[in-house]
Amino acid sequence: MSDQRLSAEARRHAARFQRVRDAHQTELAEDYVELIAKLIEETGEARLVDLADWLGVTKATVNNTIQRLQRDGLVTSKPYRSIFLTAEGEALAQMSRERHRTVRDFLIALGVDPQTADADAEGIEHHVSQVTLDKFKEFLERT
Amino acid sequence: MSDQRLSAEARRHAARFQRVRDAHQTELAEDYVELIAKLIEETGEARLVDLADWLGVTKATVNNTIQRLQRDGLVTSKPYRSIFLTAEGEALAQMSRERHRTVRDFLIALGVDPQTADADAEGIEHHVSQVTLDKFKEFLERT
DNA sequence: AATCAATATTAGTATAGGCTAACTTTTGGG
DNA sequence: CCCAAAAGTTAGCCTATACTAATATTGATT
């Protein structure tokens, strides 16, 4: 299918873009399951209103998104009841939390203040490949 | 306006999310102006069809986005003519390119292979604060 | 047990960012 | 110089992610 007309560089560039676009699709899901796991762990349950507060969006938005996550098999929820993670959601949450922590710790080890590290990690975590994550870990071990 | 009911941690979390959501709004604009600058520099002009090829999306999508960027004052374009950057677009492009290069070089200095560094930099660059970028530069100088 | 506040849902709206298909305009090769 | 291919535009569609406002449900307190 690859268009002969295109340079190898253009094709690589397009592929990278594709990858970033795909990452955007999963970002929000990762943020939600990460937060749901945290809330369950710390408060015993994940309520819609708490998610809305922690995410800084309205309840209606959270409701929408939870429907989608349920459709995609990451959470379960019944009307007016609190939200649970499926096994798949749990796995994604654990992965996300670990990656988040690694990115955050790495930035702090680099000399970034914790406040900024928190903020930047939130955006960066979804775009770090396993290869890069391993380099971050290596650096942490060296320090 | 801050809701007394919310913990400081929840408020900080929500603020970080806000920041990531805002970053998403500018990401695509940055990617476009960065690419437009590159194409103008290397080929003399930025044609819609080239943008579509390099971004891996259809011409219709690029057309849409260019209208938006024009509305937002980052590019100028006339029907059936090639695309130019405004002063503001130029400034954003330069900033983006420099940040992109720093992130990429930093990852490579860390030991990440160039291929992966390219791919990860594409996603990461939009979420790196000036503070973190400066730490990346410091690291590059130390190496 | 009734009521009210907290919580959740629904309906309706908007924007961004994607697509395909059909159309128009430009341009370059014979 | 004309006409076909390349380039650009338009219309119509879709999904994700947000919002407000109105409604419905739950649960705690009197």
Please, could you describe this protein's structure?
Two copies of one chain form a homodimer. In chain A, strand 1 (75-76) and strand 2 form a beta hairpin. Chain A starts with 7 loop residues before the first helix and ends with a helix. Chain A is mainly alpha-helical. The first copy, chain A, is globular. In chain A, helix 4 (87-110) crosses helix 6. The first copy, chain A, is 73% helix and 3% strand. Chain A contains six helices and two strands. Chain A has helices at residues 8-43, 48-55, 59-71, 87-110, 114-124, 130-142; strands at residues 75-76, 84-85. The first copy, chain A, has a two-stranded antiparallel sheet. The structure holds a DNA duplex (30 and 30 nucleotides).
Descriptive key words:
homodimer, 143 residues, mainly alpha, two-stranded antiparallel ribbon, 6 helices, 2 strands, DNA-binding
Provide the fold topology.
2 copies of one chain form a homodimer.
Chain A: H1 8-43, H2 48-55, H3 59-71, E1 75-76, E2 84-85, H4 87-110, H5 114-124, H6 130-142
Chain A binds a DNA duplex (30 and 30 nucleotides) through helix 1 and helix 3.
Write a concise synopsis of the structure shown.
The structure is a homodimer of 143-residue chains. Chain A is mainly α and 143 residues long.
The tally of helices of chain A reads: 6
Could you give the order of the helices and strands of chain A? HHHEEHHH
Largest interface: A-B, 46 and 46 residues
Instruction: Describe the largest sheet of chain A.
Output: 2 strands, antiparallel
Query: How far do the termini of chain A sit from each other?
Result: 47 Å
Name the poorly predicted regions of chain A: none
> Looking across the biggest beta sheet of chain A, what order are the strands in?
1-2
The gross shape of chain A turns out to be globular
Average pLDDT of chain A: 96
Proportion of beta-strand residues of chain A? under 5%
Structural class determined from secondary elements of chain A: mainly alpha
Helix percentage range of chain A: over 70%
Report the radius of gyration of chain A as a whole number of Å.
18 Å
